[in-house]
Amino acid sequence: MNIKHLYYFVTVAEQLSYSKAAEKLHITQPSLSTAIKNLERIVDSPLFERNTRKISLTDAGAILYKKTMPLLSQLDILEKEMKEVKELGNGELVIGMIESVKHWLPEVIREYCNCFPTMRVKLIEVLSKQDVIDSLRKYDTHIIITNQFINEADIESVSLYEENLVLLIHQDHPLSQRDELSIKELENEPFIISTEGFQTRDDILKVFEYEQVSPSIKFEIERFETALTLVRENLGLTLIPENYLVRQNEPSIVCKKIPSSLLQRTVYVTRLKNRYLSPAINAFFQRIIGYYVQKL
């Protein structure tokens, strides 16, 4: 059974169109049709139902697709690992990150690039817990800096530091004039919070639950920048990591600290345990940990 033909089959199964699949694979449609017919001959069963309007998987095609996907995924992973084995000081480092690390991560990257000047660095946002797990397991990222606590046997998480969550209010809001605030005073205010699946949301809701009050959730967001924009328009108030505000100049927004040990979150650096990382990539992981060890 030809691996290339399996790739062709999966592409047709996902596109449900020979013309679209051929275009994506950069081959001619007759060549693709021939490859699928050869595969059908090998498995001794038709893989697609064909009519003038559309195609669909047969029962045999559905089984082959289900069994083929993990195989092709492992082959892709193997290809990436074999490539990285040879990249001792070259290649690409892909870092997943949360928004609040922008105040310190560039410094670490600058020092790293001085030691590994030929390495390319790619930065992508990976925010929710499931996205962190999927990104590592699919080899989309080498390392992720996250506030999600990942309790998975195949993922290593190292705690870096704690950061406070602070309250943001528009300067015209009556609460902005108060010297001290409590969570209970926020109960009836229009509240801006991260969507489900984000650790920050869970942390904030636990604080409200501890104080035996419920937030009046008005807006759900994925990025702190969006929350900042809503507060800037005096549409609500929010709790976000204090580090996100470093070097921010927001004259219309007032930042308030609420006395509570619960208004903290932990930031971790994570990686897949059994994935091979080249010495250059592993050096970045160790450099991040060392950066915060020096600050202790």
UniProtKB/TrEMBL annotation:
PROSITE patterns to which the protein is assigned, alphabetical: HTH_LYSR (PS50931)
CDD domains to which the protein is assigned, alphabetical: PBP2_LTTR_substrate
Keywords annotated in UniProt: DNA-binding, Transcription, Transcription regulation
GO cellular component: cytosol
Keyword DNA-binding annotated: yes
HTH lysR-type domain segment(s): 1-58
Family that this chain belongs to: Belongs to the LysR transcriptional regulatory family.
Protein name from the UniProt record: DNA-binding transcriptional regulator, LysR family
Native organism: Fictibacillus solisalsi
